[in-house]
Specification:
The protein is α+β, with helices and mostly antiparallel strands. The protein has two helices and six strands.
Length: about 160
């Protein structure tokens, strides 16, 4: 899938630990999914033999690079951070924990709820929708930066 170089592509991981049915999980996520309008979404029940319980979601969200009004330079890094801030606030996360890569074009925001505090949200990770990981990359899918499509100049007979 191709994306504009003026877009930030996010992988948003959600986990609802205390939800026991797929219907309840989807009902809890529907307002968020409707608002974010992901390019793709994957929902699944957590593997009972794994570390997580409940239901998981993986959303591929594409948002335009936000113009950072505070930064006159308007570098890609500044615009990336402004875009991350908008999404993180919507998910109830603290964007200051976002770790930018060395190029300034991507990064990760990983949420770890303190074990000594009682979590009162339905997500179980300290956020309303159970957001626990945001991967971001400018212009490409953070999990597939090379893209899944390739243009070939010849007929492709050598691939058969």
């Amino acid at each position: 899938m191709r994306f504009s170089p003026d877009a930030v592509v996010f992988r948003v991981r959600l986990h609802l630990e205390r939800v026991h049915t797929a219907e309840a999980a989807l009902r809890a996520w529907l307002p968020l999914v409707s608002e974010l309008r992901p390019v793709s979404a994957k929902f699944e029940e957590a593997d009972p033999s794994g570390l997580r319980r409940g239901f998981l979601a993986d959303l591929l969200v594409v948002l335009p690079l936000t113009q950072d009004r505070a930064a006159d330079s308007g570098t890609v890094r500044d615009r990336l951070l402004a875009s991350v801030d908008v999404l993180a606030r919507r998910l109830g996360l603290d964007a200051t924990a976002f770790e930018v890569d060395e190029d300034g074009t991507g990064g990760v925001l990983s949420v770890k709820a303190p074990k000594d505090t009682e979590d009162t949200t339905e997500g179980g990770s300290g956020t309303t929708h159970g957001a626990y990981l945001i991967l971001a990359l400018t212009g490409a899918d953070p999990l597939n930066p090379e893209g899944s499509e390739t243009d070939y100049e010849d007929t492709g007979e050598d691939l058969l």
